[in-house]
TrEMBL record:
One of its GO terms (cellular component) is cytoplasm. InterPro entries: DUF167, YggU-like_sf. The lineage of its organism: Bacteria, Pseudomonadati, Pseudomonadota, Betaproteobacteria, Candidatus Accumulibacter. This is UPF0235 protein IPK02_15795. Belongs to the UPF0235 family. SUPFAM superfamilies: YggU-like.
């Protein structure tokens, strides 16, 4: 299993390195042990966090309520929790 992707008790944990202020939202590869995601939203008033959750939910075909920002609200290093998806689907839909 990848360092950025873990699963325990039906909950998937994603380690993300967010890069706000990009031209468009996209998966940009790996950044250490995290999946780097560029976001077309500024890091102001939580807009980048909202864009990250919306982007990942859309890529996985899940509702926004299936994702939770566990940690990193004010950091580029974030941990997301995902319910309702399989590890294989997440790896396939988000793989760099």
């Amino acid at each position: 299993m990848s360092d950025w992707l873990r699963e325990a008790d039906g909950v998937i944990t994603l380690t993300i390195h967010a890069q706000p202020g990009a031209k468009r939202s996209e998966v940009a590869g790996l950044h250490g042990d995290a999946l780097k995601i560029r976001l077309a939203a500024p890091a102001i008033d939580g807009r980048a966090n909202a864009a990250l959750l919306a982007f990942v939910a859309q890529r996985l075909g899940l509702g926004r309520s299936a994702l939770t920002l566990k940690s990193g609200a004010t950091s580029r290093h974030k941990v997301l929790l995902v319910v309702g998806a399989s590890v294989d689907a997440v790896r396939r839909l988000l793989a760099p």
